[in-house]
Structures are given as structure tokens and as C-alpha cells.
Design brief:
Blueprint: H1 4-22, E1 29-31, E2 50-56, E3 65-69, E4 75-83, H2 87-103, E5 108-110, E6 121-132, E7 139-150, E8 156-167, H3 173-199
Parallel strand pairs: 1-4, 2-5, 2-6
Antiparallel strand pairs: 3-4, 6-7, 7-8
Length: 208
């Protein structure tokens, strides 16, 4: 036979579980990718005209949670650590600014454009991987296939697959996002270098 004290203890225990289940969760932390340097560019238009995009990402990245990799086949998706903007938009934004700084140009545009502008180059980018691991000795990994096309998009000038591994200098998600931002800066530098080399080549008439 159950005694009254036992019933009271059971009631208190169940009540504690109920309160714990109903306790509000802390709000998530939101992060954005950072650009390589201050975003100050001349107010007047100058520099090479580059259209960046489309920037494509694999489906596993198209979510609010920041994706980290625990193994070759296992990912970590934390509701507590989320992007403040769609990851594709963040990638495009940072690439535009970084390329503008690398090329000393404020005529770097996201493709597709709402308004047609003449371009010197188009840069489609297919992000193959954008994750990594958190902790001492771990790295953020960026893999991307990118192409430098002529301004009309009809000629391939350079095509390359880049893999960039950037050390995570810390144990929190903020350090992980900073490492991802640095990997984007290095990718931007690779693309800018290819554009600068293309600028040195003799001009080739556009195909009809």
C-alpha cells in the first residue's frame, strides 16, 4: 500500500520533471561570416567589372544551423548556433567584398543581376563543402569549384577546384566561424589572382 509521504514525493518528482520540460530554452546565438578587411571602397565606380555567381551550395548547408563535421559521415547541427542570414547569401556577400578589396574595384556584382551591366568577367562558384570540426587542432574546410569566364560568359579562361583548410583558433563556435571567414578570404585571393593573370593576357574577340 502506498503511503501518503510516498505519494507526495512522487508528486514532487513528477512536478519537477514537468517544470524542467517546460523551462524556456536560451535563445540561439546568431553568427555572420566576416569580410577580409574593412569594407571601405571609393564612392565612384572604378576597377575591373566582375559578376560573381551563381554561388551554389550542397543541400546539407541550406539550413539555419551552422554545420560542423564529427566524422566523414556524421554532421553536428546545433539549434543553439545559427546563421543570421541564409548561408548562400552570406557566402556571396563576403566574396563580393573580398574580391572588391583584392582587385581594388567597386564594380563587383552578384549574379544574376536585376539590371544588366557590361562585365569583364563572370565567376560561377559551386561550393562543394563548407564545414569542419571544432576543438584544438581542428580545421574549418572549404571546398569549391570555380571558373573565370569572359564577360559574356562564352569562354572559359580558368577552371579550378580549391580546397582550403583553416585552423580553428579557439573552442567556441565564434572561433569556428572566424576560421570559415578566413577560408573565404583565401578563396577570394585565389580567384582575384586568376583574374589579374587574365587581365595580362591579350584580348580575344567575343564569340558570336
Amino acid at each position: 500500500m502506498t503511503t501518503a509521504p510516498s505519494i507526495r514525493l512522487l508528486t514532487l518528482f513528477l512536478g519537477g520533471l514537468l517544470l524542467a520540460g517546460c523551462a524556456p530554452k536560451p535563445p540561439p546565438d546568431f553568427y555572420v561570416l566576416n569580410t577580409a578587411a574593412p569594407t571601405s571602397l571609393p564612392g565612384f565606380e572604378q576597377g575591373v567589372r566582375v559578376g560573381v555567381g551563381p554561388v551554389e551550395t550542397p543541400p546539407y548547408l541550406e539550413r539555419n544551423q551552422i554545420v560542423r563535421r564529427e566524422s566523414g559521415t556524421k554532421l553536428n547541427l546545433s539549434e543553439q548556433s545559427q546563421w543570421a542570414e541564409p548561408v548562400k547569401a552570406g557566402l556571396t556577400r563576403v566574396l563580393l567584398v573580398n574580391l572588391g578589396l583584392e582587385l581594388d574595384s567597386n564594380r563587383i556584382y552578384a549574379l544574376p543581376m536585376r539590371q544588366h551591366r557590361p562585365l569583364d568577367y563572370q565567376i560561377p562558384i559551386d561550393v562543394l563543402r563548407f564545414d569542419g570540426s571544432l576543438g584544438p587542432g581542428k580545421e574549418a574546410v572549404l571546398g569549391a569549384r570555380w571558373t573565370v569566364l569572359s564577360g559574356d560568359g562564352k569562354r572559359v579562361l580558368v577552371s579550378k577546384v580549391s580546397r582550403i583548410e583553416e585552423p580553428v583558433n579557439g573552442t567556441d563556435v565564434g572561433a569556428f566561424v572566424e576560421a570559415q571567414s578566413r577560408s573565404l578570404a583565401k578563396l577570394s585571393a585565389e580567384i582575384a589572382s586568376a583574374i589579374k593573370e587574365a587581365e595580362q593576357q591579350p584580348a580575344v574577340p567575343s564569340l558570336p
